[in-house]
Specification:
By secondary structure, this protein is mainly alpha-helical. It has one domain. The chain is 73% helix and 1% strand. The protein has helices at residues 9-12, 18-36, 42-70, 84-100, 116-133, 138-157, 162-193, 198-207, 213-231, 240-246, 249-255, 258-275, 280-302, 307-328, 331-357, 379-382, 384-397, 404-418, 422-448, 454-457, 466-480, 482-498, and strands spanning 73-75, 80-82. A two-stranded antiparallel sheet has the order 1-2. A hairpin with a 4-residue loop joins β1 and β2 (80-82). The radius of gyration is 22 Å and the shape is globular.
């Protein structure tokens, strides 16, 4: 007969659950408030969401000193792992969410923002992403992944347009397939090692000398496919342009940032020990995925006629660029990835917010989509400030110095050279040059062409609410003055990456 095991509350270290629990309590509070008193103004729910996100952010900051002094923290039966990677990724997730959620205070009437369920689902989604990054337990990662994904499917569908329903169904279908691949890969890893903890899996495979290399290959391929769907890696990217087009521009910008940083951290925990195992084909598989994603996405972006779809393919290329850091697998490259993605938060969210501001309810005659290039023709003459802002974001996305993403690309390419990946560094530089063409194409339309429809062009930003203008301004300032942020950011990021087991 088994002896009962006494577990003290203190040994569970429940404080490690605080950030996720704050988000969950916030979501439940919004639902309860709506049950007690329905029909309240959306500004109340926005403020409540922002309040709980700031509390969440405070809980994350509370871990920084402890992790810096003592290393990783384990909690709740050792399935919660708070280390440098978990802290950095949660700061990006919650920080980007704080910037994003005030976009719902638009003066235009988009009905999804009037539903309290929208804000509750949003907080549940944040909690799911936080569980993903704050664990190396494959089951808890899966629970976090599905919690976040199910909430995100609903948020997309709530936009309530025909393309939104189509986008939600496509994302759900691809997400279900990715979940199946993840489950199968986890099962194979468990069969091989008897563990679902990534650290234990690494230790057992190393001790066995990767004897069952064929089965390891199967597990890696299925896991790469699963995470490839979430990161939009080629050839698992096909859902991305359609889903971004069907989502609101603001949510599309958010989707290009937050779900991907969560998937990057899982990939970092899982693939880097495989890269360092010395098994050459593991490196070759990831190398091929990185190069194909960067290059193919850039080529597809070149031929797009809609700015939103162009930015969708652009975000795929940026994901491939950042994924190169995981292939390189050094502290320098991992630090560069986080710097790159922090700068990407401001630039890409700013660009998509500009699209959000300029969206119209009904398409103009001859328009086949919301944001054709022609819509932005001559924008400098009708709305010079808006044209300047959009051009600034395009220059940053193209990696033109001294704007935001240039510094992220510089550090990433530098880490590739330092780790003796000269060919990868060359491919990254060439792809940056190719990407410059389609970003500059939009600038040419805005600054060098005559306006096609003065009425529609002059409406840009006139109806934008103060929160939207504030967010665009904040994104622009961060993009311009990123040079002043780079050194202190890199020092903090590097210190956090050192305080992780990866």
């Amino acid at each position: 007969m088994l002896e009962p095991v006494n577990i003290s509350i203190q040994s569970l270290n429940l404080v490690t659950l605080a950030p996720m629990l704050i988000a969950i309590v916030g979501a439940l509070s919004i639902i309860v408030i709506d049950l007690v008193k329905g029909g309240l103004d959306k500004s109340l729910y926005v403020m409540l969401t922002v309040l709980f996100l700031f509390l969440d952010l405070g809980a994350i900051f509370n871990f920084i000193e402890t992790v810096s002094a003592n290393g990783t923290l384990l909690g709740f039966f050792d399935v919660i792992l708070i280390d440098g990677l978990a802290i950095l990724s949660q700061l990006i997730i919650v920080g980007a969410s704080i910037i994003f959620i005030p976009l719902s205070l638009t003066s235009k009437r988009f009905h999804e923002y009037n539903y309290p369920e929208y804000y509750a689902l949003f907080l549940f989604m944040i909690a799911g992403f936080q569980f993903m990054v704050a664990s190396d337990n494959l089951i808890l990662i899966f629970v976090g992944l599905e919690t976040a994904s199910l909430a995100l499917y609903a948020l997309i569908a709530m936009h309530n347009r025909e393309k939104s329903f189509e986008a939600a169904v496509k994302y759900f279908t691809m997400g279900a397939l990715a979940a199946g691949f993840y489950s199968f890969s986890s099962m194979v890893f468990y069969a091989l090692t008897g563990s679902i903890e990534i650290n234990q899996i690494a230790a057992v495979l190393a001790a066995d000398g990767y004897a069952n290399i064929g089965y390891v290959l199967v597990a890696v391929i299925f896991m790469l496919a699963s995470l490839g769907f979430k990161l939009s890696l080629v050839p698992f990217h096909t859902w991305t342009p359609d889903v971004y087009e069907g989502s609101s521009a603001a949510l599309a910008g958010y989707m290009s940032i937050v779900p991907k940083i969560a998937a990057f951290v899982v990939a970092m925990r899982l693939f880097e020990f495989l890269i360092h195992s010395g098994v050459v084909w593991l490196e070759i598989v990831l190398y091929a995925a990185v190069v194909l994603t960067m290059t193919a996405a850039n080529i597809w972006a070149l031929v797009q006629k809609d700015v939103k779809r162009m930015l969708a393919y652009s975000s795929i290329s940026h994901a491939g660029f950042a994924m190169a850091a995981i292939l390189i697998g050094t502290t320098q490259s991992n630090s560069a990835l986080f710097l790159y993605w922090i700068l990407f938060v401001f630039t890409n969210l700013g660009a998509f917010t500009m699209l959000w501001v300029s969206r119209q309810k009904t398409l103009l005659p001859g328009q086949s989509s919301d944001h054709p290039y022609e819509k932005f023709a001559g924008m400098v003459k009708t709305m010079p400030l808006a044209a300047t802002m959009m051009a600034l974001f395009m220059l940053s996305l193209a990696g033109i110095p001294p704007f935001g993403i240039f510094w992220g690309k510089l550090y990433l390419i530098g880490s590739a050279v330092s780790a003796e990946y000269p060919m990868l560094a060359l491919i990254m530089a060439l792809n940056s040059a190719i990407a410059g063409y389609y970003y500059l194409k939009l600038i040419i339309y805005m600054f060098m062409k005559e306006p096609i429809d003065n009425a529609s062009s002059s409406s840009y930003m006139l109806n934008a609410s103060l929160p939207l203008k504030t967010i665009i301004g904040l994104a622009a300032l961060a993009t311009i003055f990123s040079v002043a942020m780079v050194n202190p950011l890199m020092e903090f990021i590097t210190a956090m990456v050192y305080n992780s087991g990866y």
